[in-house]
Design a protein that fits this description.
With 66 residues, this protein is mainly alpha-helical. α1 crosses α2. The radius of gyration is 17 Å and the shape is elongated.
Length: 66
């Protein structure tokens, strides 16, 4: 997993603080949740492919026509 930036973690935590569930978790569980969200959902912090134009892998494939 790539190194997480402090700003990215702050962004995720600021979102999660609005959740009553987040504050019921232990500190270790909160940290694990933040890391998992950053890894699995990079769009939460403005990174990653939205797939609106397709990923590079998809653009390399020939078009399918009917």
């Amino acid at each position: 997993m790539s190194l997480m930036r402090k700003e990215d973690m702050k962004t995720i935590v600021s979102i999660l603080l609005n959740s009553p569930l987040y504050l019921t978790l232990s500190v270790r569980e909160r940290y694990g949740l933040v890391l998992r969200l950053l890894h699995d959902y990079p769009l939460l912090v403005g990174k990653g492919d939205t797939n609106l134009r397709g990923s590079a892998e998809q653009r390399d494939r020939p078009s399918i026509t009917n």
